[in-house]
Every structure is written in C-alpha cells, then in structure tokens.
Specification:
single chain, 13 strands, TIM Barrel, 10 helices, 317 residues, globular
Length: 317
C-alpha cells in the first residue's frame, strides 16, 4: 500500500454514545428509535463513563469527541461529562434533535466556549412545531460562540421535501445553515426523483456524494486507529458498519481495547456513514492486497473471541 501524496491528515476523533435512548420516534430513524420493542442498554453507567474519561486522558494530542447516536443530552451527566472532556484537552461536537431548552443550550455554550466545535441540530418535522424550532435555531445562532459551527440538518423524504424547502428559505433569511441527509433504508442510500435530487445536490451533508455509490471493500481506512465509537454498554467499535464482527475492538470497562497501529482494510462492501469521510479517515484511491485483507480478518477474529469470553465472565460476575 503506497499512500497518495497530498492527502489531508486525518482528524483524530471518536463518537461517544452516552445513551441509546431518544425522546423522539422518527419513522426513518437509523437507530430504530421508532421500534419500542428493540432491546436497549439505556444510559451509560458511571463505571463506563469513568473508564472512557480515563482513556481520553491517555489519548495523544487533541481529539474531537462527538456525542451522537441517540439524544445524548438526556443523559443526566451530559454537562458534567462535556466539562471533563474539555479538561482532558479535547473538543466537543454534538448531534442533537434540538429538544434541549434554551437555558440548557445557553449553559452548554457557557461551559464549552470555543471548545464546542459544532452542533448539528436535526429537524424532525413530525416531532416538533416547525415555527418554534426555527425560532430556537435563530436564537442559538446568536447565542453560540463565534468559533462554533451550527447547522440544521434534516432527512429528506418525498413526503417532507416541500416543507423542508420552505424551512431552508426561512433559515437562510436568518443566516442559519441547513444541510440535507439522504434517507437510508437498511444499508443503502435512497435515490429520489430527479427534481428532488437536483434541488438537494448542493446542500447535502458533507461527504455524502463521496460514498453514496462507492464500494469500500479493501480500501485502507484509519478508523480503529484515529477514530472509534464507544457504546453506552462500554463496547468499542471501529466504525458504524452493520458487520460488528469485523469492527468490534473490545470493551472499555474491561480494559480490553487497543487502538490499531495504522490503517486497516475496510471489510464491508459499502460505507454508509459520512463521519469517516469528513474526518479524512478513508484512503480513497488506495487498495489493500489480498494478504493484508486476510491478515486483518485474522486480527479481527483473534480480537473478537477473547473479548467475547471476557464479556461472558463480566456479565456473570
């Protein structure tokens, strides 16, 4: 594998899911929050939070810690955790359904200051009063630190397209940015009618077009080395792939997690998350040898089996 010249350096970052609960029930949710029968862990316990903070203290340099996955702000220790993350020398990013009250948003701004890199406020038209949401967005635009990027995001469907165009126009009048997310069904991006594709093309969330029709298998990627995901139960995954067998890296509570020492081949056919793209994790234009792919599969197997046994013992203790 020979790296291509002039590739932007990866931005070390991680996603921390403090909870897998949400106060909304959107029918298109990629986390299936609309499925009330789905088994969930709930809020991360204190030992998981403590173990993750301990790891953050050891990470070299400054990492971006993004809270995402469900509605992270409903975790009772959310503000305290943000404060501790910043004290470790890292920065904060947040994806939220924007349900926190104005006083809670103001407290977050005061607490984080310029260390709050960005907030993506997800607009779910079936869950909120559109006028109130827009007014809150305009309020936050004027309240946030100047260094914090703020964008309203929305998943596009054929049914909500016309409403979203009206929202975008109102937000633009108040200098609030808006970006669109392509609906994902299963592990595939939706294709819209031509008039919708044309209208949203220039306003898609960054990185969408890079992976929408791209086949990722065998491409070297820095996820697992400079990016990882911490779940509420302490499990750590390389990325968001639907094949956890190849992405599971251990459990933070058992001290069984270790970062890779370099990029590894992607072992799934399609990448459907823009986060690794936007953090420059994916080595586009490069490919891994068959031997490198086999070695990484063996590495995944050797990691997975002992950690599964540890988890069995942990649950039985």
């Amino acid at each position: 594998m020979t790296p291509l010249p002039n590739r932007p350096a990866p931005r070390p970052s991680l996603e921390w899911h403090l909870t897998d609960l949400c106060n909304y029930r959107c029918p298109y949710c990629c986390e299936s929050q609309q499925d009330r029968g789905k088994r969930r862990h709930g809020h991360a316990e204190n030992d998981t939070v403590a173990a993750t903070l301990k790891l953050l203290k050891k990470l070299p340099g400054s990492w971006q810690v993004k809270f995402s996955g469900a509605e992270e702000t409903i975790h009772p220790r959310f503000m305290q955790v943000c404060e501790r993350v910043i004290a470790c020398g890292h920065t904060i990013a947040l994806t939220t359904n924007f349900s926190p009250s104005r006083p809670k948003l103001e407290k977050l701004v005061r607490l984080c200051g310029p260390a709050l890199e960005f907030i993506n406020a997800s607009l779910h038209l079936g869950q909120v009063d559109m006028d109130k949401f827009i007014k809150k967005a305009v309020f936050f635009q004027g309240t946030k630190d100047p260094e914090t990027d703020f964008t309203v995001c929305a998943v596009v469907t054929k049914e909500n397209f016309t409403q979203l165009m009206a929202v975008r126009n109102r937000l633009r009048q108040n200098e609030v940015a808006m970006a669109f997310q392509v609906l994902k069904i299963g592990n595939e991006f939706t294709r819209y009618p031509e008039h919708i594709e044309r209208e949203i093309k220039d306003s898609l969330v960054g990185g969408t077009e890079s992976i929408r029709t791209w086949k990722s298998y065998g491409t070297p990627c820095h996820t697992g080395q400079l990016f990882f995901v911490v779940k509420p139960n302490g499990r750590i995954f390389r990325c968001f792939s639907k094949k956890p067998w190849y992405n599971y890296m251990g459990n933070i509570r058992q001290d069984s997690f270790k970062l890779y020492d370099g990029p590894r081949p992607c072992l799934v056919d399609e990448c459907t998350c823009v986060v690794p793209v936007n953090r420059n994790m994916i080595c586009f234009g490069e490919s891994s040898s068959a031997l490198a792919i086999m070695k990484h599969k063996a590495e995944c197997l050797l990691t997975r089996l002992p950690n599964l046994l540890r988890e069995v013992r942990y649950r039985g203790s």
